[in-house]
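Posting this for the archive.
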Amino acid sequence: MEHHWSDTIFPLYRYPKYWAECFGAAPFLPMNRAGMDELGWDSCDVIIVTGDAYVDHPSFGMAIIGRLLEAQGFRVGIIAQPDWQSKAAFEALGRPNLFFGVAAGNMDSMINRYTADRKLRSDDAYTPGGVGGRRPDRCALVYAQRCKEAFAEVPVILGGIEASLRRIAHYDYWQDSVRRSILIDATADILLYGNADRAIVEIAHRLSRGEQLEDITDVRGSAFIRRDTPSGWTEIDSTRIDRPGKIDAIVNPYINSRDMTDDEQQRRNAALYGVEYDANGNPVKRPRKLEPLDRQKSVIRLPSFEKVRADPALYAHANRVLHLETNPGNARALVQKHAEVDLWLNPPPIPLTTEEMDYVFGMPFARVPHPVYGTDKIPAYEMIRFSINIMRGCFGGCTFCSITEHEGRIIQSRSAESVLDEIEAIRDKVPGFTGVISDLGGPTANMYRIACQTRAIEAACRKPSCIYPGICQNLNTDHSALTKLYRDARQIKGIKRILIASGLRYDLAVEDSEYVRELVMHHVGGYLKIAPEHTEQGPLEKMMKPGIGSYDKFKKLFDKYSTEAGKEQYLVPYFIAAHPGTTDEDMLNLALWIKTNGYRADQVQAFYPSPLASATAMYHSAKNPLRKVTYKSATVELPKDPEQRKLHKAFLRYHDPHNWPLLRTTLRKMGRADLIGDGSGQLVPAHQPDEDGDYRSPRRKNSAGGRQRKKTLTQHTGLPPRETGTGRGKGSPRRNRTR
């Protein structure tokens, strides 16, 4: 019989309830003492501290975790966006009986507060009124320290996307250096990375039974401090990489076989399985059966914080090993020394089953912000209040995106019945609903119920992506469950329209033309945003994104079905400037492609190095962690200079007169002065516009009707521009879900 990691889990909905379940579900989790008094509480069992405003909606992390713990019988309070200048705000609900749960919010606080050019943002989509500055830099770190100041003896558990991305030594773009694990800097007791539903419930129940947090070291998806490796564990040394002219005694066992020579494979097997020797010290030549190490009791030692801080190549190596240990079916524990202590990371959390997903999303959410905010608008909520999350995870593996580090590659889907029930709940409960569901998706629009054809292959796979460089032959690409969900959702009484706004993996969608037809004919609101990201192979390889041919194939289907539907609809492609692996020539070719296809970028996204992403490792080290890292391995082209980043963005906005002087100068330096002029095949005019900013090509008529109509690449949403590395893609706050 085929076994799988999901066969051994204890379902979330089967835990015996904590005694406080007698209080029942609260209309809102309390934010102050008055709210606790109304519920008849004398204390909170758990207090969640978050950098976002409290919105009781399943797209907000504090609501998901809070309602989940409430369903387990615990009394949960919320401290949202506290004044971090002193401990007073952290004492507002009193001492929690079990622990503080601390998260920065639905976004990494540094990405939330600063642009890709390290400029301070003036707004914050997760704050009432969109006001900026309501949370500190490295929010989770500061909050955890204040919790310890308020109640030193109370355990502090870090979680959310900020904790996930900073769980080990990580490159910090804003300081341009490698920082320690946030767990150590925050002086917290334990860190939960990834979607922590399962871990937080287990820990809460174990603490309620009297266990001490320092003794809870076996929870998957957790990181904590140890002094040494416990007995019974086998430690595998991965602290070094090969140097020119030197052969290491132990070869890193986590390099892909395609990167290994025969000799390296033999040495790897010797290191992993052992070799018998005779009395003279010579290897025994008779064959014997090799027994593999027990994965459940194996831990990989990464280079220490001090070493990866000093050696960018070692940083890239550590990043590579971490990303190869992300499949919950075969991942091993990791350990990394920080000064005199070890940071221990247990294997990733086991994904939720469909029944557990339905349980989590079936909580009694009010689906609106807490009444304490009055009439103030919270922009992120306004954007997602009529949207529904149908799944978690993404197996795309894009190197610049944070979804893999946080939600993992295995898709966790809700049942159709659960999704349809939520549509009816929105129709009946949410103020201002007009009959239009703004999105039915998740981290991606079209990975719902898509997985490996067999569970055994899924549990053994170590690929960073299921769809790069091509779609894996073991991946089931059938979209029929999603197509049926769309059709059933449209039949619900009171529903006029259902739009799809989540990021579409068009290279996957084209494998099911019936799905594309359904999407285009019924669920596009005039524009469909997709993300080819680039046209040139150099940067695309570093992104792990498909070639532009996949875009062309999808566009043909999109245009075909739009015509069949009698609708004028447009694709809106996103592109990235200044990604590792991108040259000036690459950006020029992309600009020419954009112009040839009649697009104009309204907003431009520059590469944003988020902590822990593979592309960030490239940015910091100039090494490619997608392949074996050595000191002699090829370097990656890095457009890091501010002027070069400015140039790459200017290529994307070739039509903006403010960029023309820079582009003219650059084109002349590149020997491409032939692209300066007013010809149809030229990129920028030879002359600047008049002072009033009006410029018309001599090729165009002077009448208003003679102006060329251009398709716009992006549209303003009122939220911060989409920037890579946030896990946010397509502007959807849901993609930053904090756990």
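Confidence is low (pLDDT under 50) at residues 243-258, 697-712, 714-739. The chain has three domains: 5-221, 229-274+292-345, 386-655+710-736.
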